[in-house]
Amino acid sequence: MAYSPYPLLERALLSPDADEKCGLTDELYAAVHNTELSAAGAAAPLDFRSAGRPQKPLLVAPAQVTPRKMNTQEGYAAMLHAICHIEFNAVNLALDAAYRFRNLPQAFTQDWIRVAKEEVYHFRLMRARLRHFGFDYGDFEAHGHLWDMAYKTAFDPLLRMALVPRVLEARGLDVTPAIRAKVAQRGDTETCDVLDIIYRDEVGHVRIGNHWYRHLCEQRGLAPEALFRTLIARYDMFIFRGYVNIEARERAGFSRFEMEMLEDFEKSMKAAR
Ligand SMILES: [Fe+2]
């Protein structure tokens, strides 16, 4: 009999406890892997402002996150905490894509549950590094930027694929090499190993986002490149600010042609402001 993943997806998504959420996600992946899925009889997805998260970390506006110097033990831990927080949010984002967007091929649901399982793995690895330095998830302030974009795109999978994996998650590919270099400079090889795993897997996650973005555009008869430029402008987002990792983005399914077009487009937008 086909398996409905929605009750377990909902429990995992709404769980406020990080360990429980991770455990439920593992359970979910084991249940759906190589299994026929069904949405029959499932209640409609709930519309919530926030997915389940622990009371700590305290969320503040991005500009209010206290800057800390990487050369102190606490500053270094704050940087590891920021990555931990991204991974925790990435678990919720992937679960939400699988949970919310139905009427899509079941490969879509399978893909995002697999991404959620990999994000759980990243979260656990990074949390272990944070604990190694005497801190834990929740010990520093954080911001809710990633989840906010999930909320803003909750009504349309095309919008979600365009703005979350293709913009926010792809940004991770741009910034990880510089973070890794700083971590290597400190001689923290264990954290370097974790960053390498995260980096490798994130290429795959952005690739999945690209695949489904193109699939949805094709289904609706929309031109993917032109639509993406429109969305970037309308949602006030950007790709080209600081270093852009063209090599990793190409492996994640962006074409060089599209990247060049986007760079020109953003330059003209900036000039017009
Ligand atoms: Fe991740």
Could you characterize what this model shows?
InterPro entries: DUF455 (IPR007402), Ferritin-like_SF (IPR009078), UCP012318 (IPR011197). Pfam families: DUF455 (PF04305). This protein has 273 residues and is mainly α. It has one domain (6-38, 63-272): Ferritin (Up-down Bundle), CATH 1.20.1260. The protein is built from ten helices and no strands. Helix 3 packs antiparallel against helix 4 (106-132). The longest helix has 32 residues, at 189-220. The mean pLDDT is 93. The site of fe (ii) ion has 6 residues, from helix 3, helix 4 and helix 7.
Features:
single chain; 273 residues; mainly alpha; Ferritin; 10 helices; globular; binds fe (ii) ion; DUF455
Mean pLDDT: 93
Note the run of SSEs as H and E. Answer: HHHHHHHHHH
Integer-rounded radius of gyration: 19 Å
Cα distance spanning the termini? 57 Å
